[in-house]
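Data deposition worksheet. Section B asks for the primary sequence of the deposited chain exactly as it was used as input, without tags or linkers unless they were present during the calculation. Section C holds the resulting structure in token form. Section D is free text for depositor observations; keep each observation to a single sentence. Incomplete worksheets are returned to the depositor.
Section A, Depositor: J.P.
Section B:
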Amino acid sequence: MARHELARFLRDRRAGLRPHEAGLTTTGTVRRTPGLRREEVAELAHMSVDYYARLEQARGPRPSARILDALAQALRLTPAERSHLFRLAGSNAPPGRNAVRRVRPHVARMLERLPETAAIVTDAAYGVVAWNPLAQALLGSDLARGTTNLARRRFLGQGQMYESSSAEEFGHIVVARLRRAADRYPHDPQVTALLAELHAESEEFRQIWQTRPVHAPGHRTKTLDHPEAGTLRLNCDVLLVPEEDQEVVLMTADPGSPAVRALHRLARQAT
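Section C:
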């Protein structure tokens, strides 16, 4: 626990938060500083003023996850700031109650700047939450409906599935990620419904689930049989967006290969 850094972080965030931003009414009140008072933070976080004061003075005990979450909410911390607060307290920040299905604007803009790379963003349960035009041309027009889930594609045949190689490997990757989602978001209704559907309708899913597969995102190659572009050998690389528990999947082809020329044609058609 980095007591002095934690104390400084709390003081800085308290001083930078205006009362109206925290939902407080200050009509007719003379304030010496523009930020919140310690008493106000303690009230918002449902803790004693003495306990909060000791944290700011680097004299307090190690706060629990419940206390840290209450402080993060009271101080209106961003997800990155919340994670930093937990790290200063010597803890790992637990995920929120539900999987994040919105996409950060800078991530969405990144997809737009990759015209010759097919790129999608998937949430913790393999729902496709963002994509660029080339990804739609490569993976199927049903992406445009915004309801595509790669786990349902893989195990239930919902939507267009062109992958002809490494399908077995991908099945284990999907189950490994869904097991993580089940552990992290036990109260998320969409995750619960997806798992119930897959268990009920896919014997293959049930069998792989029992093996408890483990997978770390990284690089793999796969072959797609595309109805227009033909057989494509693609590189698939994954970048993590840890604060949202999301993955950016980038699909490219080797320079000079037939697949890269096919991607160029698809990219021109997509734009």
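Section D:
The two ends are 52 Å apart (CA to CA).
The chain has twelve helices and five strands.
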